[in-house]
Amino acid sequence: MPSEFTIVEHPIDTERHVIAVRGDLDLFAASALKEAFARAIDAGRIRIIVDLAETTFLDSSALGVLMVALKRLRSRRGALAVVNLNANLIAIFKITGLDQTFTILPTRDAAIEAVASANAA
Prior knowledge:
4 helices
């Protein structure tokens, strides 16, 4: 039985924001993630942490949403970090080569600090 999908958002300050995903991040859930990014970025939060600690599955549509968000943030001199990946999610990022594109960190605290100091071009 698939996990119940939810997104919990945690604004940190005027620029930093955490989006925590629980459950399967698939084609049907990707639109909710896209909306969460849009709300955060439209509110001026250009340094976003995506916490995948409770994410059980990630498909190509979700990776596409992450790529679009990263591009949008970089165009605003922002940053995006992905944290708390389990072994299966790490494998997905490595197989697709996206481990070279995204900042992947082990903890939320490390990501909060990394995006604060990031100077994306």
